[in-house]
Amino acid sequence: MTLTFIAQDDDREIAAATATTIYVCITCRRAGEPETGSAPGLLLAHATSRAADGTGVTVRRVRCLANCNRGLSAAIRRDGAWTYVFGGLDPERDAAALVEGARLFARASDSIMPWRGRPEVLKRGLIARVPPIDFEEESE
Ligand code: FES
What we know:
By secondary structure, the chain is of the alpha+beta class.
């Protein structure tokens, strides 16, 4: 997929980039946390939606990404690209980082979320990456 990079205008830039979606697990709780009250994952989803407002990044809620022991959890997807699952997120601290990572990914000229410029929490909190459906490893 070809991207048109427009460096001077953020709004036009994101419109020219590939649509990217953040899935936030709304049922995540930290280990040992009581089951009462709003799940911190839901708070992270709210904060991420607010942070994404006007950026062109879509935020969706999901119940469980099967990363419960290492929550809070979120995934970032882009059509035809790798999917990234993150854990150890904090509802007050990491919403902006998720959106920043999604925007970086949206502007990437290949199907990989760049390491350079990626928010620190999306480096140390990376749980897994999953290839696009048509991916084939190059033979050695
Ligand atoms: S409850 Fe969030 S990953 Fe399972």
